[in-house]
Amino acid sequence: MTALTLSTAGAASLRADAIVVGVAKGAKGPVVAPGAEAVDKAFDGKLGSVLETLGASGAEGEVTKVPSPSGLKAPVVLAVGLGPVPGKDDSYGTEPLRRAAGSAARALSGRKKAAFALPVESAEAVEAVAEGALLGAYAFLAYQGGEKNGNGKNGKNGGNGKAENGPKLPLGEVLLVGTKPRDKAVKAAADRAIALTEEVNRARDLVNTPPNDLTPEAFAAVATAAGKENGIKVQVLDEKALAKGGYGGILGVGQGSANPPRLVRLSYTHPDAVKTLALVGKGITYDSGGISLKPAGHNETMKCDMSGAAAVFAAVVTAARLGLTVNVTGWLALAENMPSGSAVRPGDVLRMYSGKTVEVLNTDAEGRLVLADALTRACEEKPDAIVDVATLTGAMVLALGHRTFGIMANDDAFRTTIHELAEEAGEASWPMPLPADLLKGMDSPTADIANIGERMGGGLVAGLFLKEFVAEGITWAHLDIAGPAFHEGAPYGYTPKGGTGSAIRTLVKLAESF
Fold it and tell me: Which of 196, 239, 365, 486 sits most deeply, having the most CB atoms within 10 A of its CB?
């Protein structure tokens, strides 16, 4: 993990591999942002002109490297675009700062230390820059380069910013200059950023881990170890306990795999808490589609189908690390969906933990089956609210694209709250309806309900299915993160290729609001 240090020192006097400055898009060319005054002075006040000559405009995410003049101890100045210059009475928004810091950190991979001289006039700005830099510096290198150390993972660092025979290591240290390390608000902001980003990056690691290593049992072991480290109570139900408890949905999905399913309960409690938030995560550690097999081209990234469970896990651990005054319970519904002679078949009927029966018409609509059991169990504890998180439907990706998750709920005000908190956290989301007329499409002549309905509006149909397993009187929301959970394109801002840690920052904001 990249280290974070706060410093009151000016950028010009610091020994680092690079100095990061912000540049905004002005009406007459790039404008050097606050925080970089000493750097601009070393360029005789002409840093903006130099950057413009090199083609920089200040557009968001734009990165330009310039050799340092005399007067700066760092050999390179990296200018990163912040987007349009804010209005006279406005400051740079937290999300542009977060993205800019992430872009800079990615561009400095392989370097040991970089001084970030971005606009950090407030604690909120400090937190945004810290978050962006620490998230942007992320790299998943566990299976690349180095000598084998018994588990196929990296050996020693070669000492040149690379793993031996492997890719560049992430930026080693982020030094935020011009801050007030002794200010309580600033220190709290930095501490929050460190805890949050470490857990987001751990969730990214889980999402990126190949499914032959991250089985339901292995995921449960990771959760158990993290629980011991952070004072979280952990209970794991194995296949025998699931059978005894009547968890037909989780067992049905997992019965085709040689790796049996698990249901993990994580419980963080605070002695002064008066409310409880329950989080439920879909944890399909690999989704082949089962008997309703996914075609080639649609199954290669299905290790990411446990992203919802990773988000819930990370949110609970972050709540514990921050000592939030709220009780947070996380439920990880873990299974592997595989075709075999023992797999559930289209036409089979499962008796769920709630007692309801479900006719399985498509075994690739399996996430809702494991979530249904976990939702029912979570409702038994009567929390003040439940939020489930899942890479649930391709239909939601078609509706909202690859960067935005959908929010459905049985309470409009709660849905709005989550949407607003997601915006504050810097995560793109959109409220979605739950049209009652779509429920009829899941009528079954054999069981209480079928696991699929109308094809059009499939993401909403899935939400309606889940709602059937939420107890009366409990506030509930469903986040479909199928689009943003796993990024297959080129990295941008603080978003890497692969697992992104989608929804974690929103869930932590929600827990903080309770």
Answer: 196
Strands 349-351 vs 357-359: parallel, antiparallel or unpaired: antiparallel
Total Cβ atoms within 10 A of residue 85: 17
- Whether 184 is catalytic is no
CB atoms within 10 A of CB 437: 9
Q: Supply φ then ψ for residue 351, to 5 degrees.
A: -95, 115
SS3 43: coil
Place of tokens 């751990």: 202
User: Catalytic residue at 294?
Assistant: yes
Read off the pLDDT of residues 91-102 as tens digits, 9 standing for 90 and up. Answer: 899 999 999 999
CA separation for the pair 327, 384 (Å, rounded): 10
The phi, psi pair for 237, rounded to 5°, reads: -95, 120
List the structure tokens of 379. Answer: 């409702």
Whose tokens are 């952070």? That residue is 230
**β-strands 173-177, 327-337: how paired?**
unpaired
Please write the tens of the pLDDT for every residue from 127-177: 999 999 999 999 999 999 765 544 444 444 444 566 566 688 999 999 999
Decide if 282 contacts 330 (C-beta within 8 A): no
Catalytic residue among 162, 180, 275, 294: 294
Q: Are strands 63-67 and 76-84 parallel, antiparallel or unpaired?
A: antiparallel
The pair of structure tokens assigned to 214 is 């991250």
Q: Which of 180, 124, 126 has its CA nearest to residue 7?
A: 180
391 with 367: CB under 8 angstroms? Answer: yes
Chain segment 309-362, per-residue pLDDT in tens: 999 999 999 999 999 999 999 999 999 999 999 999 999 999 999 999 999 999
Q: Under a CB-based contact definition with an 8 Å cutoff, are residues 128 and 97 in contact?
A: yes
The verdict on pTM exceeding 0.85 is yes
**Residue 453 is which amino acid?**
G
What mean pLDDT value characterizes the chain?
95
Catalytic residue among 368, 377, 415, 509: 368
